[in-house]
Amino acid sequence: MRILVVEDDAIIAAGLVYSLEQEGYEVTAADSVGDAIGKMEKQEFDLFLLDLSLPDGTGYDICKKVKKEKDVPVIFLTAVDDEVNVVMGLDMGADDYVTKPFRIRELMSRIKSVLRRYEKRNGEDLTKQSAKKEEKNVVCIDQVSVHLAEGKVFKHGKELMLTAMEYRLLLIFLQNRGQILSRNQLLEGIWDVSGDFVNDNTLTVYMKRLREKLEDDPADPKLFKTVRGLGYMLMKGE
Length: 238
What we know:
The protein is α/β, with parallel strands linked by helices.
């Protein structure tokens, strides 16, 4: 397992490299966007730990390049406990984030959880799993139709642009239509990791965005019902 750590703080980077190597990982360190891209051109990596703020750019720049070339895990290391920055990284395809200062044990748990999720994903694609359960390629809920085989969503016949995370959340609801899902169940379904390690606010953000895109009146949702004190439920539809 080869990990690329991109961190411009030499002390933090050295500590990360040492701790990861003690866990049996093969670790390479870079201190800038240019340095990281140079190392990526010479070697393939199985997981990326990216600092958000770098001397010649941001971790976003590296994440875009990584996800464009190959679907491998990306975890952000950020000192900015800011929801906008976190959600931006997740929208780009990042798999998780850790806010500095963090405990090494927590970081190791995040890494193992993300790797387990990728192993599970490679075993059976979530979209295919949904299609099997529905036994058809198109699922309709009121004015919304989800084309599972193509991974596309339409409302009143017009295609909607959903982020990967929004679509993944929608699939979880489709797999459990008519059932109340707690916030923890939704978080575990998205991240495949204990809710203790996930910023619960990000779920609120994605639910808000999903309603804005799929509901006719987000202020009075008909598709995604909030069950006070319990969680959310997607109406059964057709």
